[in-house]
Amino acid sequence: MNKIQLFGADWCPDCRRAKAFLNDNNIDYTFIDVDLDKEATLKVEQINNGKRIIPTVIINGKSFTNPSNIELSAVLGINEVGRVQLFGADWCPDCRRAKSFLKDNAINFEFIDVDENEWATAKVEEINNGKRIIPTILIDNVPYTNPDNVSLTDLLSINVEKEHKVFDTIIIGGGAAGLTTSIYAQRDRFDTLILEKKNIGGNAFLTEKIENYPGFNSISGPALMDKMEE
To answer: How do residues 35-65 score in pLDDT, each as one tens digit?
Structure first.
């Protein structure tokens, strides 16, 4: 299912630039000419607070007004190695691990939430023989099911430089206790490293609801751990 729409006009230089960029990177999209479609004009004006600004690009339901090629690269996950798409969900520990790894290594990627897009769920199941396994990552349209960080390093040709550094404090485990300890260690200006094999938040991240935690009557485990990580 096509989830990218480009609203524009043939006379518009930035529309032509955006179209050329998408075409050069083999991105499937639908071009809608606002000069020929009154409903498209109204949609563009609705998105842009009454202004007819083109190109307006909608990607998986989110709008971008006259995005530069650099912005399109970041949103669509376009890199020198190809296009990177990560199908997953915010509650999934391995999805969070993969997202963090890609961000830490400055890899552009498009995150597609399978809980919010039925077509994405169907695509993941098609790739994995009917099973909904996440994260499923497409690199230049080649699928990889839940690849670990070592595999991603190789697939994306990431140059790993070994770093030798002495820390004042090393905390084993990135759960609630480890994160709290790191906050106070950093406040006392101790150079601190957290070692966590899976995901920030530990078991608390996997808890659907946490009640009577100081400061919160009720909060989900992922939301609380996100606040601690922040």
So the answer is: 999 999 999 999 999 999 999 999 988 899 9
pLDDT at 163 over 80: no
pLDDT tens digits, 81-116: 789 999 999 888 899 889 989 988 889 999 999 998
Conformational region of residue 196, where left means phi above 0, alpha means psi within -120 to 50, and beta covers everything else: beta
Instruction: Say what the pTM is.
Output: 0.71
Distances (CA, A) of 41 to 28, 54, 137: 22, 10, 35
CB 182 within 8 A of CB 192: yes
Which two three-digit tokens encode residue 27?
A: 């991105």
| Cis peptide, bond prior to residue 147, ω within 30 of zero | no
| Paired residues of 59 in beta bridges | 4, 62
Query: H or E segment at 193?
Result: strand 192-195
Kindly list the distances between the CA atom of residue 176 and the CA atoms of 26, 117, 181, 182, 229, in Å, as whole numbers in the listed order.
44, 31, 9, 10, 9
